[in-house]
Every structure is written in structure tokens, then in C-alpha cells.
Write a structure and sequence with these properties.
By secondary structure, the chain is α+β, with helices and mostly antiparallel strands. Strands 1-2-3-5-4 form a 5-stranded mixed β-sheet, covered by helices on one side. The protein is elongated and about 45 Å long. 17% of the residues are buried.
Length: 113
């Protein structure tokens, strides 16, 4: 899976999402996604299309546990043969659930240099 496919999955969920930091206008949304890259793993011998496996954290925020959109996200990832281990925590002072997991996607991070 590449980054464009990951973003397409987020778009198809029809909930707010943002890369890097949370968009201020979405702070109060009951269900939202924030994702960011936190690791690069070089791919050798892959040709010129991709040079790096980029690891993203996907953070899913919801007012309810087992949110149907989280289940839908998991299903869409499984269709792409991506089966992340999803962790959950309850943020008491904000009164929401935070589910988070890593996703590895193929990218060519040197292409636009």
C-alpha cells in the first residue's frame, strides 16, 4: 500500500482527518483521525518506484469505544492486506477514546529533491 491509498481509505470514511497535527476546526469532532510519520525504513532493490517504507502512526479519536468508523477503517485496511495491532486508551480529562496503530506504506521520499 502507498500513501495515496492510505489517504483514500481515510477519505472514504467521511470523517475529519489530518496529517501531522490536528486541524483546529476538527478539535471538537466526535470522530476524527490524525496521522504522522515517525519512521523510515530503506527499501533496497525495489527499483525506482519506491525507496522507503514509511511508518505512520494513525490516531483515531472517538467518544465511544468500538466506533463503527474504527471498525470500518480496520476492515478497509484488511482488504489491503494490512492488519495492524490496534491499541486503545481512554483519555479521562477529554472524555474520549484514543485508538492508535502503526501502518507501513511505500513511498519514494527522494523523488522530489
Amino acid at each position: 500500500m502507498d500513501k495515496e491509498e492510505l489517504i483514500e481509505i481515510f477519505e472514504n470514511l467521511k470523517i475529519p482527518f489530518n496529517e501531522g497535527i490536528q486541524n483546529d476546526k476538527d478539535t471538537d469532532a466526535n470522530t476524527r483521525i490524525v496521522f504522522w510519520e515517525y519512521g523510515w525504513d530503506p527499501i533496497t532493490g525495489s527499483g525506482t518506484e519506491y525507496d522507503t517504507k514509511v511508518i505512520y502512526q494513525v490516531s483515531f479519536f472517538s467518544k465511544i469505544p468500538r466506533n463503527p468508523k474504527l471498525i470500518e477503517l480496520r476492515k478497509k485496511l484488511k482488504e489491503k492486506k494490512v492488519n495492524p495491532y490496534i491499541e486503545h486508551e481512554y483519555i479521562e480529562d477529554k472524555q474520549y477514546f484514543h485508538s492508535f496503530f502503526p501502518v507501513e506504506v511505500c513511498e519514494n521520499i527522494e523523488r522530489n529533491i
